[in-house]
Amino acid sequence: MTKLSGFCAALALCAAFGLPATAETAAPTAETVLATVNGVNITLGDVIVTREGLPAQYQSLPDDQLFTGIVDQLVQQEALKQSLGDALSKKSSLAIQGLTRSYLSNEALLAGIKDAVSEAEIQKAYDAKYKDMAPSLEYHASHILVDSEEKAKAILAEIEGGKAFADEAKANSKDGSAANGGDLGWFGVGAMVKPFEDAVVAAPVGKVVGPIKTDFGWHLILVSETRTKAAPPLADVQDQIAKEVQKAAVEAFIKTTTDKATITRSLEGIDPALIKDVTLLDK
Known about the structure:
This protein has three domains: 3-85, no CATH class; 88-133 and 234-253 and 278-282, no CATH class; 136-229, Chitinase A, domain 3. Helices cover 49% and strands 16% of the residues. It is built from ten helices and six strands. The chain has helices spanning 3-16, 44-52, 56-59, 63-83, 90-112, 119-130, 149-160, 165-172, 194-202, 234-260; strands spanning 33-37, 40-43, 136-146, 183-188, 208-214, 217-229. A four-stranded antiparallel beta sheet has the order 4-3-6-5. It has a two-stranded antiparallel sheet with strand order 1-2. Strand 5 and strand 6 (217-229) form a beta hairpin. Residues 1-23 have low confidence and may be disordered.
């Protein structure tokens, strides 16, 4: 074969596969055809979009495995889709509309809030949340919970006679903290029921107080130490603040967008139970 005839053959192959008619093969694009099903193209762009929609554990698979797997999947899906013919049921048409609406609304939302969670906005939200926060006390306390005032008084007498609070809690307390000697850890105001909280706030550090009655039973309480709780450093709450900023941005963007839209509702006289009547899709 002459050089000229070889060049012509290359041009023919390019034309057959929809490639540009140049002496060198062009770089792949989103429109590069990877397969056809009854004349319908499966492109590199289709594969890229499909991979993007996969869960993270699948995206981490080797590229060669994903590439052929996705192409095979898209070929199968296209063949199955074509087997339905051109006529779509009402249910299928509405489902497709719903998927399109859902996807495009999410794309609009992502575009609308893409600059919302910036370092400046996180700092602004942090300052607004914590700048006026007054220091407050936290308490490290333990308790012994029993069913009667008499039993609580008897245990208190044992403690005042030299028994260790933690040992008495392990032997007598009826709640889950008993295994830890009644230790409840650190907590602030608002974390406990009111009678218990009032007793903790008033209790001298290191002195057992009670019995205190709550809906749970009778308590003996020992506050072992207190500390001042100040605003947390930004680094400790940055992720939480970022989520709050994003949530606020989402809500604001949705409100702004819907406020601009002309919306009418015609719900009067419609039985809500009709949402379960799938037979309407056949009418």
